[in-house]
Structure formats: structure tokens, C-alpha cells
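Title: Comparing notes on inverse folding

I've been comparing how different people in this forum approach sequence design from structure. To keep things fair, I'm posting one structure and asking everyone to reply with a full sequence. Here's the target:
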């Protein structure tokens, strides 16, 4: 059995203060969440694609690339792709580039290309 997490990178309010978290803060929190999921051996983390003001994931491949550079084991994927807003060949190529950015288990520093 595999365990996974889906996220739509929605802009959220701080649960304690009720103040809306900045977009930069929300993305930083999301990437920390992906790192935590990797550390506790969640199998997959997926980001959806939305093109609305309250979501930060209009370019999930960019967020997933940032996550790939910070993780070692977790699989990263797009949960939703709006093909009417994208070139299908580019979607395929973007999806196949991310694993090369992930660190291999035991890698001590920086990102190393993996094939």
C-alpha cells in the first residue's frame, strides 16, 4: 500500500491569528511539508494546477522542481493538468525532468543529477 498527499497550494489563513499567509510564506510552508513527507516516507506528493487568484499553483512543474531539489525519496507528480492551457508535449517533458533533480538517498549535499 502507498500513502500520498495532494495539494492545491491554496492561500491559507494562519490557524492561530486568522491572518492570511503571504504567497511566499505559503510556498515556503508547502515545500517544508514536502520535505517532511519525504522524511517520514510518504510515497508520493502531488500538486494540482489551478488558475484562480486564491491558488498559487498555476505552474505546478516549477513547485515540483523546487520540491525535487529538496527531497530524496518521495515521488512527485502533478495531480491536475489543464491541457487546454498547456502544450501536451511540454507537459510530458516537464514531468520527466523532475526526477533528475532529486537527490539520491545518502547524498550529503547539493543536488546531484540522477539517471
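Reply #1:
Here's my take.
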Amino acid at each position: 500500500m502507498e500513502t500520498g498527499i495532494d495539494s492545491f497550494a491554496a492561500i491559507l489563513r494562519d490557524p492561530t491569528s486568522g491572518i492570511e499567509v503571504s504567497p511566499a510564506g505559503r510556498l515556503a510552508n508547502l515545500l517544508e511539508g514536502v520535505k517532511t513527507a519525504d522524511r517520514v516516507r510518504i510515497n508520493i506528493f502531488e500538486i494540482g494546477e489551478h488558475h484562480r487568484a486564491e491558488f498559487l499553483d498555476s505552474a505546478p512543474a516549477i513547485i515540483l522542481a523546487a520540491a525535487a531539489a529538496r527531497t530524496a525519496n518521495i515521488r512527485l507528480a502533478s495531480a491536475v493538468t489543464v491541457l487546454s492551457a498547456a502544450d501536451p508535449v511540454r507537459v510530458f517533458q516537464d514531468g520527466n525532468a523532475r526526477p533528475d533533480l532529486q537527490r539520491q538517498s545518502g547524498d550529503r549535499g547539493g543536488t546531484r543529477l540522477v539517471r
